[in-house]
Amino acid sequence: MVTCKAPAKINLALHVCGQRGDGYHLLDTLVGFCAIGDTLFVEPAMTGQFSLETTGTFALALAQGDTKSNLVMRAARLLEADARAAGHETFPVRFRLEKQLPVASGMGGGSADAAAALLALARLWGLPEEYDLAGVAAQIGADVPMCLHSRPLRAEGVGERIALLPPQRPLDVVLANPGIGVATPDVFRALKSRNNLGISEIPYLAHDPVWLSGLRNDLQLAAISLTPEIGDVLEALAAMPGAQLVRMSGSGATCFAIHENARTAQAAASQLVDSHPDWWCAATRLEGEAIAERITG
Ligand code: C5P
């Protein structure tokens, strides 16, 4: 059995800097990964075919859909075809996805799950270290290549041009989601301006709320125009003692607050859960380096 963590992704900043001929937007984004996330368990299948079982808090949100369209299954099929074409041996596996992150929430849950599937399969099938997983990842979704790394990074282009950052200070953060899924294409379509400035030169210590406050998430206003509850989440996060910087992640609806310390973050999360029982809220750590023991077995 191989176990692979699929940590929640936060876009500390996301600037939209243009649009390609095929409609995809050019981004400049600063990304980090959290201590919390989904977990993927993978073992050889006895049945001769790929299968996926979902468990955990948000299992139902996924199980209602066709499991074949789940990004884990797409990743498996794509890597199987790619590896076979390159002459490697593969075999079917059973996946169990422990879904702890809300679905379609701007934390890259599905993309992180797909990246975890690629890493776990490469381990189980014994693919060579230098195998081009990023190439397969990019075919699944724009966010999947960065989720292979799961450490602080800057991504440009449509997400495929990745520069890893030096180790950063871990940040205490609160994540909050109003329980409403946001469709990423709709948010991009609602943008008023698509040609904004990129992120300025990134300082060595990028996990600095003061420097970060000069950056933006260009999708934030567009997402609020479609889902006004996102504005309520941002307001509620900002009102908590210890909150230093509040912003939306990805295309929403999850927002985050960087906190002074773990104590104020915990207090804020419990207070938000009490006052908004229908929201999903969590205090966690935005890691400063690669996620520890990401893949085991
Ligand atoms: O690649 P992914 O499936 O995450 O993207 C979902 C949708 O978001 C795309 O189909 C596209 O409409 C939009 N998108 C975009 N520019 C990006 C990433 C996503 O326009 N860089």
Word description of this protein:
This protein has 297 residues and is α+β, with helices and mostly antiparallel strands. It has two domains: 2-164, Ribosomal Protein S5, domain 2; 171-286, Alpha-Beta Plaits, CATH 3.30.70. Helices cover 31% and strands 29% of the residues. It is built from ten helices and eleven strands. The chain has helices spanning 59-63, 71-85, 109-125, 133-140, 144-149, 184-189, 209-212, 220-226, 229-238, 262-275, and strands spanning 2-19, 25-44, 51-55, 93-98, 153-157, 161-164, 171-177, 243-248, 255-259, 280-286, 295-296. The strands form two sheets. Strands 1, 2, 3, 4, 5, 6 and 11 form a seven-stranded mixed sheet that branches. The protein has a four-stranded antiparallel sheet with strand order 8-9-7-10. A hairpin with a 3-residue loop joins strand 5 and strand 6 (161-164). Helix 2 (71-85) packs parallel to helix 3 (109-125), helix 2 packs across helix 4 (133-140) and helix 3 (109-125) runs antiparallel to helix 4 (133-140). The mean pLDDT is 95. Bound molecules: cytidine-5'-monophosphate (C5P).
List the helices and strands and how they pair.
Elements: E1 2-19, E2 25-44, E3 51-55, H1 59-63, H2 71-85, E4 93-98, H3 109-125, H4 133-140, H5 144-149, E5 153-157, E6 161-164, E7 171-177, H6 184-189, H7 209-212, H8 220-226, H9 229-238, E8 243-248, E9 255-259, H10 262-275, E10 280-286, E11 295-296
Parallel strand pairs: 3-4
Antiparallel strand pairs: 1-2, 1-11, 2-4, 2-5, 5-6, 7-9, 7-10, 8-9
The structure holds cytidine-5'-monophosphate.
